[in-house]
Amino acid sequence: MSHEKNSPLTREINKRRTFGIISHPDAGKTTLTEKLLLFGGAIQQAGAVKSRKTDRHATSDWMAIEQERGISVTSSVMKFNYRDFDINLLDTPGHKDFSEDTYRVLTAVDSAMMIIDSAKGVETQTEKLMEVCRMRNTPIMTFINKLDRDGMEPLDILADIEEKLQIECTPLTWPIGMGKRFKGVYNLYKKELHLFSAEKETLAKEGIRIQDLSDPKLDELLGSQADDLRDDIELIEGAADPFELDLYLKGTQTPVFFGSAINNFGVQELLDAFVEMAPTPIGRKAMSREVSPYEEGFSGFVFKIQANMDPAHRDRIAFFRICSGKFTRGMKVKHHRIGKDITIANATIFMAQDRTHVEEAYPGDIIGIHNHGTIKIGDTFTTKEPLKFTGIPSFAPEHFKRVLLKNPLKTKQLQKGLMQLAEEGAVQVFRPLRGSDYILGAVGELQFEVTIARLKNEYNVDAAYEHVNIGVARWIGCDDKKCLDAFKENQMASLAMDAEEHLTYLTTSEWQLGFVMEQNPDIVFNKTREYA
Ligand code: G4P
Fold first, then answer.
1. Per-residue model confidence as pLDDT tens digits over 384-408
2. What residues have CB less than 8 Å from 81, skipping those under 6 apart?
3. What residue owns the CA closest to ligand 1's atom 22?
4. Ligand 1: distance of its center to the CA of 36 in Å?
5. Any coiled-coil ranges, and where (predicted)?
6. DSSP three-state, residue 129
7. pLDDT tens digit sequence for 354-364
8. Which pTM was predicted?
9. Are the C-beta atoms of residues 2 and 289 closer than 8 Å to each other?
């Protein structure tokens, strides 16, 4: 293993930061992304990201989805530079595009940024995404947005985060007023005051150093709000836990920043703290051992597959996260699941606005690999011993529908289409042990719409849906064969096989699930399942 302090590989790794944003729709993810890219010089003007989003939600017919996929793919990994750092921002699609991909992207990042709308506090989608972050103890930095509007009291927001998300909050900046009385933020660790001004497109101005809060300059600048700030700071210095890098890196404490993304206020401080504190590409667990990014041998895994990026070619792109070693164009790697050597000739790297061929890439980077159906989510490629990375799960779907085939002669095509779409992670497919129909499961409703349209377009199958009285799915585990057989016998009507032949329990509600779990203490009901 080579981990020389100054080797070129080490230097490349140490300047990389790979992260995703978690938030509820409308909290300001698009706006913040745009500002981050602006600082990184990756876009020239504000509005570039935003206008894409507006197009995206304009219509919801199939053409729009198709177009949207082209667009959302180029924006699904954004690489930009800031100071001496190489940053990869992975988009976690939100809103109605919410799907398993949203969750799975979080398995490929090293840290996350959480945006909270100051008027709303913690919202449902953030809670769900946080659950996924917790599976890997992902470090989280928090940005409380929209301070230019009246919202909840800052202390109440912190309490809300601590209670709903079970993570300790430690403010690193503190807001002075809000809404019309919003004066700016005080940076607690740099002891600097930043006065609010709406600078939509420029970099932030230098802060004003105020070492001692009793400095009369504070009164000059803030008037009657100076004393409010002094009281607040005294209160939080007594009550809030001090920032500890180690706790942040373990995912148990989140440093909190306040600002207004649309006004570009507080964003640069967030970004500065991010590059200084957020983890460099971290080691990854494989079945056999932990893989360090500093190992010379190349390795990585596929966390997302996207079909038909280019409508002219019906190929798919596999999004591959590099975990160790250096990637060079034309490199030969072993595709372990199928046991074959493959040459990665034309990988793509995703810049903020376009895609370019990649000559070299390093741990933390995401490359796109063209794929004609041989690559699956969870696949590992290496130049070393066979490895199987863990922690790339499938998530239990929350919505279900039964598929109805309009022309029974197309059963074979339907089966082929569904299996391929399931492999891609576009939708989950279940075959009940009793009966011959297909039940589809999805994390987000839009996945159903896309599946029907793609079955028609790509497999020439006309299908429709029927309501099915299922609301919960769990993958079944049990070491005791006798127990399992008895359970199967009893619950036959509620059991199905998924696309990878894993036994799955499908039922109406959490309540019913709880009841059956109580009756069957030897059976394990899993909410996530690792890819085979
Ligand atoms: P999302 O990607 O998380 O869904 O959120 P997005 O950035 O699209 O922001 C949602 C709305 O919140 C937008 O308004 C955006 O302008 C607004 N917003 C973002 N940051 C701030 C902020 O710091 N202060 C205030 N006051 N508003 C903010 P919209 O009306 O939905 O869109 P638009 O008409 O402004 O484009």
1. 888 889 888 888 999 999 999 988 8
2. 40, 41, 42, 87
3. 146
4. 15
5. none
6. helix
7. 556 678 899 99
8. 0.87
9. no
